[in-house]
Amino acid sequence: MATPPKLLCGGLLSALVLLAALWYRPAPEDILQSRLDVVLTSLLRAERKVELGGLPPPRVAIGFGGCLDIIVDGVELLDEAGIEHSRNPVHHDVIQTEKQLAESFAYFFPPGAASERYVSNATLFRKLVTASKKLSEMRWSLGGNAASMANRLAREGCDVLLGGRFSREQSKALSQNVTVAGDFVEDADIHLILEYATGSRWGEYISRRANRYIVHSDVHNPLIDSLEEFRLHLSSFRPDVLVIGGLQMMDNFPFEAGQRVARLKALQDLLISTDQSTGTHFEMASFVEESLMKDLLQYVIPYADSLGMNEQELPNLLSLMKGGNITVLSDPYPRVASILDQMRELYRLVNSQDLKKGYRKLTRLHIHTLAFQAIAVSKGSMWKNTMSATAKASLTANRHVCGSAQIDTTKARLILDDSFSVSREMGSTRIPVKETRPVSCWEESDFEICIAPVLVCTQVYQTAGGGDNVSAAGLVLQI
Q: What's the CA gap between 46 and 41, in Å, rounded?
């Protein structure tokens, strides 16, 4: 029996429609690219909800120190300096020999964990600096926690007072909106930034994520020797926020007996004398000396309204506060639920201390990780615009690491899952990450928490200073 012409045409048309649908169906990579574009647009919209234009610029005072960063490919530098591969990964508090340098690099390089170590051997450090100057891709930049944060704050529209001692050449790299409190020095402290990308290879080791290994042999920064000059300027500057950073330079530095505690007590006195209406923020870093961490818990942390740190520094601080040991190495890709639980615990521990003279309640906590930004703020505190601040921190992570103010989603990826649990406890709420509203915020007891995914840069320009830039950007919109 012959097929009716109408049915034949209808079947042919259906087949053509199906073939066209299959032909024009977006490839998986196109769908992923489209998602990244929507997330970027949404994060930019969230960032722009708060504008600084038309308002008196926020005033931020920040100490201490700065340096000249020499940024190189870490593997290339070790090869150029003749540092042989080590098959014995060992954590060393201080680097004295080439063997210890190799063992320490082998310890932090495979997981891609940020690290900073003092080199007590001046000859070895000079050898590394000399080798770095022979590399074609070597570049210089202004470095140090305080200086990096100062430039970011100024770039975002703040007036900044910076406590530090810089060479005249270094000071030219500071924004015109940054005023330096501290005498000039002839020879700037130098930090060697050994950068490496995800998948970099050194001997038998392959890095799991892009990061940096920093070595220094500082003279000025460990002594926070601009503190007194900085304090003289504070009363007339009248900051909205006082930021303290760079104290990891004290880690394992060969102080004279009692010298470090004396400097920290001088800093404590500054913090106590700061008006309670002025917010105080302490930016953590890579600390490995337990006695220094204990000093910070006594002389600095109780006087901070706000703390900033990464996924390595958070469990490190928590472990010590709970009576444990220093946690040098932690998961480089922590789950959101794990970070949130640790944030709650830190918030509780810090605020459970008896309030002594000058002590402050912790009202803000910013954790910056590779995959996401997390900010918790107490209700009724001075900190505002948490959602927009979290978005800005997320965008700044990409801008800094990619080295561009304009974000290119073809050079980015999302590694945060499509949803996350708010706790590791069984039955915890799970929150979806929506492309059109990627910043998730909710309230718990007496604080608000916001989480924003990071558009992780896949063509890394620089990881050093990432945490400083991200923390500074997050602060800007919350002052």
A: 9
